[in-house]
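Lay summary. Proteins are chains of building blocks that fold into shapes, and those shapes determine what they do. In this project we predict the shape from the chain. Here is one chain we studied, written as its sequence of building blocks.
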Amino acid sequence: MKNKKEIINYIIFGVLTTVVNFAVFWLFNRLLGRDFYLASNVIAWVAAVAFAYVTNRIWVFQSKVKSAKGVLKEIGEFFLSRLFSLGVEEAGLLILVDLLKFKNLSFELFTFAITGEMLSKIILAVIVVILNYIFSKFIIFKKQ
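And here is the predicted shape, written in a compact code that computers can read:
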């Protein structure tokens, strides 16, 4: 039962983290311009990872680590694993947007413009969420 609750919480906070990520990406992609989509993605990543660490630590995996050294280790592992998934996402964006020419795509969905960059980000979000869960569950917040 606890495992189901953990997965449900991971999904809920994962959706919220994704909302933070996409909102910040959309905002900075508009502010900086579409040519700077990789920079916008890094800024969005920083905001989303900070949000995800707090929610994963407290509500999803309910970390019992209390010592400063333990928390710093946990933070380091969390950010390093997310840095890896950022690399996967950045490489995926580069491949989809520039090499496979998704940048030429654009359509409207419920009066919201979906660009090739955003579509690429949606595709890669699925891969990244799976990677992040594996890292969090089995490495960072593993039960002692």
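What the prediction tells us: Strands lie at 106-109, 112-115.
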